[in-house]
Amino acid sequence: MVISSVFTTPAAPPLLACKSGFNQAPLPVHMRLGISKSSQLSNGRLSLPGFSCTHQESIVALNPDSTVKPEGRVKIFSGSASLLLAQEIASYMGMELGKINIKRFADGEVYVQLQESVRGCHAFLVQPTCPPTNENLMELLIMIDACRRASARSITAIIPYFGYGRADRKTKERESIAAKLVANLITEAGANRVVSIDFHSGQAIGYFDISVDQVYGQPVILDYLVSKNIPSKDLVVVSPDVGGVARARGFAKKLSDAPLAIVDKRRQGHNISEVMNLIGDVKGKVAVLVDDMIDTAGTITNAAALLQQEGANAVYACCTHAVFSPPAIERLSSGVFQEVIITNTIPVAEHNYFSQLTVLSVANLLAETIWHIHSDGSVSGMFK
Fold first, then answer.
1. Over the stretch 155-200, which tens digit does the pLDDT of each residue have?
2. Beta strands in the chain (DSSP E)
3. Where are the alpha helices (DSSP H) in 26-69?
């Protein structure tokens, strides 16, 4: 039997460092990509500089006196789409990734085998459905099926980026609603719960007939922006289109109620946009463009050019999901942005890095979400 590729998860890397704790004023923690030797396990508990996990006492997996060990209750497996992020999550929790064998046959079919028992365990599967979307989605479905057939007590699909999320409604005759179709596939495969970061639209949550937790990536970016010490009087938050006003308004409120501006655009077709005018004042300001994703970067680059024409001193681009379809890199690195700030919900290929790009890790957000789910805690309470 000919196999074209083999993927096996290696051992987890050393623990990562973080800046501050959840529910500590003013903003939650963020982690930059990198390794810190200052993080360690002490008496079976996670010890991170400046971080205090107030709910650890209620979690069996962190109690060294418990007869049930962490690996006997919680299992974290990674698909091939985002191994580094899964390793960061496991490291943050003081665990190792579960052993899994994922193969591609010569004809492209996916083969998945769990290489350790999950019977009676809560299995968490980390797999964004990012490009190649169909490949990664099919791999996730087969991983879910493997866990279900191996008698996992419950299966949670951790989908940092939910592919097909933009196909969430009918805007023309005879269109499909692919977001609903994908939700049905994940449910029928056997998942009991889905966790994702920043759905493109809130209505996509209602497409699932199982529990869904939406994690917000904004705190990670907000914490980073606060660390840059930009005076609030010099700051303006900008929505690149009318549809993102609510997102930008919430972002501005958390940045000391910064003023809000809106770029009005007219879209001519898929992945083609035309900027028309600006609502609000950006002259002499540091403009922060906020969006949930950057695909071809046409919308956000056109918006940045308009902001510069209107007198903005500097333009920052912030988004959770960096899809980066061509020609996104050429547009983003053209010099119109002071900095492009993204998260690692989608892995960035090495050849797509450029000098203005900053990548923030969401591993701590997802690790905390896993603990809250496992201990029957409130996920929404993490962001209050």
1. 999 999 999 999 888 888 999 999 999 999 999 999 999 999 999 8
2. 3-8, 31-32, 40-42, 45-47, 74-78, 100-105, 110-114, 122-126, 154-159, 193-197, 211-215, 235-239, 260-269, 272-279, 286-294, 314-322, 339-343, 357-361
3. none
Beta strands in 171-285 (DSSP E): 193-197, 211-215, 235-239, 260-269, 272-279
- Would you state the structure tokens that stand for residue 2, as one six-digit string? 């000919």
Side-chain-side CA neighbours of 201 within 13 Å: the count stands at 14
Q: Exposed, middle or buried: residue 44 (CB in 10 Å: 0-12, 13-18, 19+)?
A: middle
Structure letter (DSSP) for residue 253: H
How many Å apart are CA 267 and CA 30, to the nearest integer?
34
- Whether the Cβ atoms of residue 351 and residue 328 lie closer than 8 Å to each other: no
* β-bridge partners, 122: 74, 154
Nearest to 141, CA basis, from 168, 99, 92, 181: 181
Question: pTM for the complete prediction?
Answer: 0.80
CA-only gyration radius of the chain, Å: 21
Residue carrying structure tokens 């064998």: 101
Q: Please count the CA atoms within 13 angstroms of the CA of 350 that sit on its side-chain side.
A: 0
Note the maximum CA span of the chain. 65
